[in-house]
Design a protein that fits this description.
about 40% helix; alpha/beta
């Protein structure tokens, strides 16, 4: 974890290699250190993202920036699922203060950048 210029904690959700919903949920559980009670479904993901009590230590007070990286292959393989994921990210951001979700580079960190810069 790092922090941004505003002091918010920054966590990367790396979706490199994820090609289905199960993989997305597993990666969310791992990268976000979600509790064992995380149900690995869309509603549970939305609830977890909007619940500062399951965020990394200190994030509830400082804010949390979630950078979703390596998402392009999943979005292309499962566009309907990716659309739901984007809705979940947006809904969680709207549900309470302190959470910001942003799309980072769409490709894997092992690949060449898919965007200039």
């Amino acid at each position: 974890m790092t922090e941004d210029s505003a002091g918010r904690l920054v966590v990367t959700l790396d979706l490199g290699g994820v090609t289905d919903k199960a993989g997305l949920m597993d990666r969310c559980a791992r990268d976000l250190a979600l509790p064992d009670r995380f149900g690995r479904n869309w509603d549970s993901l939305a609830d977890s993202l909007a619940d500062p009590s399951v965020w990394p230590e200190g994030a509830a007070d400082r804010g949390l920036v979630l950078v979703v990286a390596g998402w392009r292959a999943y979005a292309e393989a499962r566009p309907d699922e990716w659309s739901v994921a984007e809705e979940v990210f947006a809904e969680a951001t709207d549900r309470g203060p302190g959470l910001f979700v942003t799309l980072g580079p769409g490709g894997s960190s092992r690949e060449a950048a898919d965007q200039p810069g």
